[in-house]
Amino acid sequence: MANEPQPINALPEGQSEVKGDKVQENKETVELTGRRIFLVRHGERMDRVFPGWLRLGFTDLGAYRPYDLNMPLRAVKRENGWKDFYNDPPITEIGYATSQMIGRGMKLSGIGFDMVYCSPALRSIQSAHGILKSFAGSNTKICIEAGLFEYLGWYENANLNFLNTDQLVSEGYEIQPNYIPYMMAQTLKDKFHSETIEEYYKRVNTVVNYIVSLHGKTKCNLLFVVHAPTIDAIGRSLMKKSATNLSNYELSKMGIHYPYASVVGLEETKANGEWQLMPNILPPISCLDFSNRVNLNYFTRP
Fold it and tell me: Which of 32, 81, 252, 301 is 20 to 30 Å apart from 243, CA to CA?
């Protein structure tokens, strides 16, 4: 984690002003509906820390052999063995630990979740699992929504083979088997494999509106465990901001603005149903030159 970049223009601790949207500690009190959405990026991914892990971590017979203490002790069983990890890697032990820190911080802050919505990526599911470890006995489940997966333009010729619900349950993940997703994994791969960046943001917008509509007007806390670009796409959708003119380069740098295990909170206002930023939800996670602070200036850009 020491080699992770610091978010550009990250706010100092305790500061909540966001230039542009002018979110301040002393802002005028707004009546809220009680509906809140929390966006969390998955933990540190294995292939970014250990680029050669598939070559060095598996024997010729396909047996997994971790060679670093930051690697998980066992690998999830995959249909095609190690090959399925190429485009769907797990998180590291540190990635799992930071997810647990987020869960612990949420619980200590009195924040619980009515439902968790998750990208089908293994790294997101494992991160959601780590967060929920702090809520033992809560019966909160993870709903797998393929439409929350990141930009498919990066996977145009890739063989994405996500774990299905039965496989995830057998691995011990708290999956909601009765959830009917807006988009199935096969639909995602068939219809969006050559999507543009603008189409990706529209896809996420459609999925998020569908998920929010499932909860009607009832008070609820919804957790989304997703990817850096998907955090940005959800934020743009809920705050009714434009998502045009984003380049592939800018999209590829989203991890700078939304580091591993970063957290953003949004709450709905009663006056017009708009969603506004919740500043300072949790203290940051800091280690050497790593911080999980979100670049709020970027998140709330016009």
Answer: 32
